[in-house]
Design goal:
This protein is mainly alpha-helical and about 190 residues long. The chain has one domain. The protein contains 7 helices and no strands. Helix 1 crosses helix 7, helix 2 packs antiparallel against helix 6 and helix 6 packs antiparallel against helix 7. The longest helix is centred in the C-terminal third of the chain and has 29 residues.
């Protein structure tokens, strides 16, 4: 088996962390991640999913690559769009009681974590095809996503405090733009 240079692993980890950063900022803009534990949960789960997905992709190997590539972008885009719609609804003044309790809990957390880590699954598949061990890259990817997500939550909280519901609307729009970018990137 070959190996991957550390610089390449770090660049991949940072690139994969960008969606987690944007989603962390958007989730924190909702104002429902004000408690430190909520920010920790969000960052922890984003990092965990980002670390596990390359391992799952690597284990799946080249046999499943064609099947997963056919729809991974749709899954990520739909999950992000659902969460974005909920944020937009809250941002435009609908009762918070109609929305999920917090983006750092339950199915919303699982949906966000899955959506930001689908690309990591593809990285794992690529590593398997290159016959590169996955353990070190997966750990670096997970730690990077966790650190970047935590920073995103902190930034999002500042924006939320300063801009209120408007920040939640912007966060929803950001999630929709990420979903659109995923679709455009994979469909073109």
């Amino acid at each position: 088996m070959g190996h991957m240079p550390l610089v390449e692993v770090l660049l991949i980890a940072l690139a994969l962390s960008l969606d987690a950063l944007a989603v962390s900022i958007a989730a924190a803009c909702s104002g429902r991640t004000a408690a430190p534990r909520a920010g920790f949960r969000l960052a922890f789960h984003f990092g965990l999913f980002q670390a596990l997905m390359p391992v799952l992709g690597w284990l799946a190997g080249w046999r499943l690559a064609a099947h997963i590539e056919a729809y991974d972008h749709w899954v990520a885009a739909v999950l992000l769009a659902i969460v974005a719609a909920r944020m937009l609804r809250a941002g435009f003044g609908h009762e918070a009681a109609e929305l999920p309790a917090a983006p750092s809990r339950g199915l919303t957390l699982v949906a966000l974590s899955t959506a930001v880590s689908v690309d990591a699954l593809a990285v794992g598949l690529s590593l398997a095809m290159l016959r590169v061990p996955v353990w070190f890259p997966a750990a670096v990817i997970g730690l990077s996503a966790r650190a970047v997500s935590f920073a995103g939550v902190r930034l999002g909280r500042c924006l939320s405090t300063r801009f209120g519901r408007g920040a939640e609307v912007v966060g929803g729009i950001v999630l929709l733009l990420i979903a659109a970018r995923i679709l455009v990137q994979h469909l073109s």
